[in-house]
Design goal:
It contains two helices and six strands, in the order βββαβαββ. It has helices at 35-52, 73-83; strands spanning 2-7, 12-17, 20-23, 60-67, 91-96, 106-113. It has a six-stranded mixed beta sheet with strand order 1-2-3-6-4-5, covered by helices on one side. The longest helix has 18 residues, at 35-52.
Length: 114
Amino acid sequence: MIQRIASNARMSEAVVHNGTVYLAGQVAGDLSADTTEQTRQVLASIDKLLAEAGSDKSRILRAEIFLADIAEFAQLNEAWDAWVPAGAVPARATVQAALYHPDVRVEIVVTAAV
């Protein structure tokens, strides 16, 4: 069985299949915020979607992080380190990328166990 969460004509925000939840890339709602605040907003969206899927951040297997400017890596990590549970850190990759809008500072994709 496949469960799709928050779907529209183009995509689903999350898809659950065979005990795993796959999240679409999450971006902040307030694009005027700095990288640290945008990251906090993204992580809150991830928390919400994982809860809807029957999971939580302690069950994240992998995180893929896209930064508009890799020079803002420390600001990203400020929010990430305060959020990620000690002893349950996922595999993670961070890259600089051209994102869909010039004011998007960070986009995060996660895969988690349910």
